[in-house]
Amino acid sequence: MNASPALQLIVGLGNPGPRYDKTRHNIGAVWVRKLAQRYGVPLAAEKKFKGEMGYGLVGGVYLRLLLPSTFMNNSGESVGALARYYKIPVTDILVAYDEMAFEPGVVRLKNGGGDNGHNGLKSIRAACGNDGGFHRLRIGVGHPGDKNLVTAYLTQHTMPAAERGLAEQAADLSESVMQDVVTMNWQAAMNVLHATGEN
């Protein structure tokens, strides 16, 4: 058990199935899966939580990783079920997701706030008693330039390899930043990420 303030749950948002694997909307799920590999945290399907879950040591903190197997718009069904079961406060949750406000290669942290039109965040907030106090890792994927093109841009088009590489590289947080994130030392983590756009 962690003695000092620390995250208890990191969630990666995406859509299930191979057709969505390399789309922009899945970049949060990609990040958490890579995190699990990096720290040797095995992920296994958990039907009662509607997702893949793992528990292990990440950046020096024991916590849970979750990849909802629901569609993005229903992510809260998975997150809410797990948070209630383990009695995890909303403020001990970090959600990684695709952020159109930033170009690929930009990653930002945010503490609480609205959903900004992101249906995954909207679903999680609703499932957590309409509490948007969870933390966010916003991974830039760029914007198509026209709001009518957003759905296809996020869910139907494969993210170009160069853009995907930029996004994944920027989200590959250094060990010191990762430690600051999991111990909720937000200001230190933000000072690094927000100063350079990278780690």
Taking the alpha carbons of the first and last residues, their distance comes to 28 Å
Kindly provide the name of the CATH class: Alpha Beta
The shape is globular
Corresponding CATH architecture: 3-Layer(aba) Sandwich
Overall average pLDDT: 93
CATH superfamily: Peptidyl-tRNA hydrolase
**H and E string:** EHEEEHEEHEHHHH
Q: What is the count of helical runs?
A: 7
Give structural notes:
This protein has about 200 residues and is of the alpha/beta class. It has a single domain, classed as 3-Layer(aba) Sandwich (Rossmann fold), CATH 3.40.50. The chain is built from seven helices and seven strands, in the order βαβββαββαβαααα. Strands 2-3-4-1-5-7-6 form a seven-stranded mixed β-sheet, with helices on both faces. The model has no long low-confidence stretch (mean pLDDT about 95).
Summarize the structure.
With 199 residues, the chain is α/β, with parallel strands linked by helices. It has helices at 27-39, 75-85, 119-127, 150-155, 161-171, 175-182, 186-196; strands at residues 9-12, 44-46, 51-58, 61-68, 93-99, 107-111, 135-140. The protein has a seven-stranded mixed sheet, sandwiched between helices.
